[in-house]
Amino acid sequence: MAAKLGARGGSSLRRGVPDDLDVTHEINVTPFIDVMLVLLIIFMVAAPLATVDIGVELPATAAEPQPRPDKPTFVTVKPDLTIAVGEDTMARDGLVTALAAATRGRKDERIYLRADKAVSYGDLMEVMNTLRNAGYLKVALVGLDGRS
Question: What is residue 40's predicted lDDT score, i.e. its pLDDT?
């Protein structure tokens, strides 16, 4: 082993000063790997929840039918976007007054909403928003029984 010469020309080993050591640049990667594995697990769980690729045909259902009240209140959206409360067809702006008459002013009564397949989702949502703005919060969607 060769001794280095100090500033005065003497060896640094003789004066008790240790020789300059090489600095090792090593990173402790264990915490980094732990963090990456946790992030991988989080993304593996969250990724299937974020995908929306569901083909839906809504009018048929396989759910058990709920018991109907004696005189249910039906709101029907026809293919030509006219609205009927019970059997009475009316303009869209008369829906709230016709519902008030049909439910005798009870806003907690369940309203059964049914729409033709040809009615777009946006038009159905407009009718639902009208019902909600009028105070009818219990709205049930009606579909065909898909159980064979």
Answer: 93
For residue range 53-71, list pLDDT tens digits in order: 445 445 666 667 666 667 7
Phi-psi region of 124 (alpha: psi -120 to 50; beta: other; left: phi over 0): alpha
CA angle in degrees (0–180, nearest 5) for 124-117-62: 100
What distances in angstroms separate CA 71 from CA 57, 103, 111, one per listed residue? 29, 10, 11
Name the pTM for this structure: 0.52
- 109's CB contacts (< 8 A; 6+ apart) are 73, 103, 136, 138
**What count of other Cβ atoms lies within 10 Å of the Cβ of residue 103?**
17
Task: Supply the DSSP string of 45-89, one letter for each residue.
Answer: HHHHHH-------TTEE-SPPPPPPSS-EEEEE-TTS-EEETTEE
